[in-house]
Specification:
By secondary structure, this protein is α/β, with parallel strands linked by helices. It is 40% helix and 14% strand. The strands form 2 sheets. The chain has an 8-stranded parallel barrel, surrounded by 5 helices. Strand 1, helix 2 and strand 2 form a beta-alpha-beta unit. The chain binds flavin mononucleotide.
């Protein structure tokens, strides 16, 4: 009998059935994916240490002993300390005036509540460290760093039996992280939602495989179908890391306006820009991204200052459900988000689709 092509080194490392990792901000998606035989990582970069501890407890209640991960951002290039109000005062007048003028022209209201950004780990190093300490105290099975080299936490994490994954957009970062001893590397291509580098998924994955030695590489960026999973394994990856795939899922907590938009979008409805956070990222095109593309737009600020500007816009758009303003991170694979499926179904469909590719290629039943 042929070997099951979907049983990879990642399945053994994480004791999972399918080499599919969901990155999500929604705990219900984590529960569904983990209980369906995949692996899930909860993005907690915007949460307080207490919230993170409570979420870890919630997940443990739902998945028992099955492993899961928590993702933070640990960027090196942000100030050591400083709260939102202090940082806001440093926004140059030119950019502030541009935003205030945009606000007037598009009749953008004030956000209803406090800006979520207060606790963003990308704001300053102190916040990121306090978030990280919870993950170490709680001994979460896997810590992922979405931004920044996690080498500095390896010793503490490994002593507690925690695995550490790093997410990279360039092969030289993968080499550095592999040499430092991370347990796996997510090679994320330009196709991806959110912060990402300029190298396409088809190139970055085998480049990272070539330089990472024995460190397993997980493919990310534009992966929304079993064909992408099969292709990623052919490129030498041990599994896939997916974000956009879960945004319109039944459990996903995105607004229905965004779910509808994702279901009706294709790759060219997404744009790659640094105007949201100061780092290049891929999102659904919106008023904010269009405005910053205009010839009259000022220079985009660095992190975290650009994020301070955009957070008012994003939160107002969401709080008031302004369809003309709302946006979300979305990858180029968005074309294959075709309906609001339960997350468990998404996992199983991706597995079926990938097995079908292998069967068609080899003319044999996959396993
Ligand atoms: C809505 C959304 C928010 C994201 N936020 C983060 C984040 O906070 N930290 C992180 O490491 N990655 C974040 N990402 C990127 C994902 O981890 C993942 O690398 C990316 O979604 C992969 O590309 P894909 O969406 O095309 O599958 C986000 C992705 C999405 C869709």
């Amino acid at each position: 009998m042929a070997k099951n092509p979907l049983h990879t080194k990642l399945c053994d490392m994480l004791e999972i059935e399918f080499p599919i990792i969901a990155f999500t901000h929604c705990k219900d998606v984590v529960e569904a994916v983990v209980n369906a035989g995949g692996f899930a990582v909860l993005g907690e970069a915007m949460h307080t240490p207490d919230e993170i501890a409570a979420d870890i407890k919630w997940i443990r209640n739902k998945v028992g002993n099955k492993p899961f991960g928590i993702d933070l951002v640990l960027p090196a290039s942000v100030p050591p300390t400083g709260d939102l109000d202090e940082l806001r005062k440093k926004i140059p007048q030119e950019q502030m005036d541009f935003w205030l003028d945009m606000k007037k022209r598009h009749n953008i209201p004030e956000p209803k509540g406090q800006i979520d950004l207060h606790q963003w780990g990308g704001l300053n190093k102190e916040i990121a460290r306090s978030q990280l300490d919870v993950l170490l105290d709680e001994k979460v099975p896997v810590i992922c760093s979405g931004l920044g080299n996690p080498a500095f936490i390896l010793k503490d994490a490994h002593e507690k039996g925690i695995k550490v994954f790093g997410l990279v957009g360039k092969a030289r970062q993968a080499k550095k992280e592999a040499e430092a001893g991370v347990d796996a590397i997510i090679a994320q291509g330009y196709d991806a939602a959110g912060h990402t580098g300029p190298v396409g998924t088809l190139s970055i994955v085998p480049e990272c495989v070539a330089v990472a030695g024995d460190t397993p590489i997980i493919a990310a960026g534009g992966i929304t179908h079993g064909k992408h999973l099969a292709a990623s394994l052919c490129l030498g990856a041990v599994g896939v890391w997916t974000g956009t795939l879960w945004l319109a899922s039944r459990e996903g907590d995105n607004d229905m306006i965004i779910k509808d938009r994702l279901i009706n979008s294709t790759a060219d409805d997404t744009v790659y820009s640094d105007c949201i956070s100061g780092f290049p990222m891929r999102v659904l095109d919106c008023t904010w991204t269009k405005e910053w593309r205009d010839d009259k737009a000022p220079k985009v600020l660095g992190a975290p200052y650009q994020m301070l500007l955009s957070s008012d816009y994003i939160q107002a758009a969401n709080d008031h459900r302004r369809e003309d303003l709302m946006t979300e991170a979305a990858g180029q694979g968005v074309r294959f988000i075709e309906s609001m499926k339960p997350s468990r179904q998404i996992v199983l469909d991706m597995v079926e689709e990938a097995l079908e590719v292998f069967e068609n290629l080899t003319g044999m039943e996959a396993f």
